[in-house]
Amino acid sequence: MATYLDDAFWCKIPAFSQVSEDEFIDYKWQIKHSVCNEPNLIKTIKDIAPDEFIKAACQGFSKTPMAVRITPYLLSLINWRDPWHDPICKQFIPTSNQLMEDHPMLRLDSLHELKDAIAPGLIHRYAHKALFLPLDTCPAYCRFCTRSYAVGRDTNIVKKVNLPIAPQRWKEAFNYIESHPELEDVAISGGDTYNLSAEHIKAIGFRLLQIPHIRRIRFATRGIAVMPMKILSDEKWLKAITSVLNLGRQLHKEVALHTHFNHASEITSITQLAMNQLFELGLVVRNQTVLLRGVNDTASQMQLLIKRLSYINIQPYYVYQHDLVKGVEDLRTSVETAIKLEKNVRGVAAGFNTPTFVLDTPGGGGKRCIHSYEYYNRETGVSVYTAPAVKPGQYFLYFDPLHSLKVEIRAAWQDPKKREEMCSEALKEVIPVP
Q1: For the chain (length 434 residues), average pLDDT per consecutive 10?
Q2: What pTM, to 2 d.p., does this model score?
Q3: In CATH, what number is assigned to the domain containing residue 234?
Q4: Domain contains 107
Q5: For residue 389, is it within any domain?
Q6: For every residue of 292-349, which 3-state class applies, written as one string?
Q7: For residue 42, with 0-12 CB atoms within 10 Å meaning exposed, 13-18 middle and 19 or more buried, which class applies?
């Protein structure tokens, strides 16, 4: 059996040293004391983090798309003796000395969600599935967020697209879904559905389930990883999810939660208590991991994460190749890394607890199995994917991070002419000759 961190670990942070367990487990306390700006971050960690780290973090936030928002729970899990290499710290706090130059092919909205949206916050890309974004905030902001074009506050380098909580905007989405009988499946994301009120959870869940052709809905949240105590202390929210689940059962429709853990150290005894609660209710919880350099890009790290998720009844579902978003080149890995990792995790757990490694194709082709490329040049780092059931006849290019390439190839990517040649050469390998 796995053992999880279960002592008063938060007391190691001077700012939380006098906080009782009852207070720490209260989601309202977590929200109230979340770090939401750089001065607050400095105040919270100034006695435990190296001065050079604090300086680098402040500089890092000024150069990246995501604003500061970290829960006390997450701050308490970081190894402040060596924050530079801590797997949780890397996900939420950018440091200027670790940032790398963006690949010239990176885009703010690499998945073309804005382009593919048929209404504000509603993307109908797959024939039978829609993505609904009812809000643009989260309990904590991951620095690698694929929706950095919208999620959170404006930053020095990004003025965000606003997708606020607005029932009138939702009505437009519901009307569209209702008028398209081919839709069977709706993913409700954001932002993070943890930040929806109990009333909003019920309003969205009930409305979608009562559409005759909708067979499945899932609420996406990283909350179980970044603030699991909400499950234990927010009775109204839990009752709302339960009521949606029960309605789904009555209608013989599936209701699930999709969550997001990236490293085994994110799982504690508090996580286990929260998951026990959800498991007893009969709620299916699946996990979607993002492959991150220096966080979970070794076989041992990924194997341990999969095992621990399985122990607490979270089904490892996807491992995503890192999207081509700006400001996080230091966290991206090559496609080859993902392929090797997939080989090493298969067989560690039962098949239904073994995640599929996927790449969400730039340009809106949707998810492809990582090894299903039509062409992959490991020298230039260009891979080509197709999506016949989503956008037939189109080709989607992914680009390995510059740091994984030889020096001369890195230089070639800085030359617009050579850049075009490398992309053209890759496409020539897969496009049929007339």
Answers
A1: 85 96 98 96 96 96 96 98 97 97 95 94 96 98 97 95 96 98 98 98 98 98 98 98 98 98 98 98 98 98 97 97 96 98 94 96 96 98 97 97 98 98 97 79
A2: 0.96
A3: 3.20.20.70
A4: no
A5: no
A6: CCCCCCCHHHHHHHHHHHHHCCCEEEEEECCCCCCCCHHHCCCHHHHHHHHHHHCCCC
A7: middle
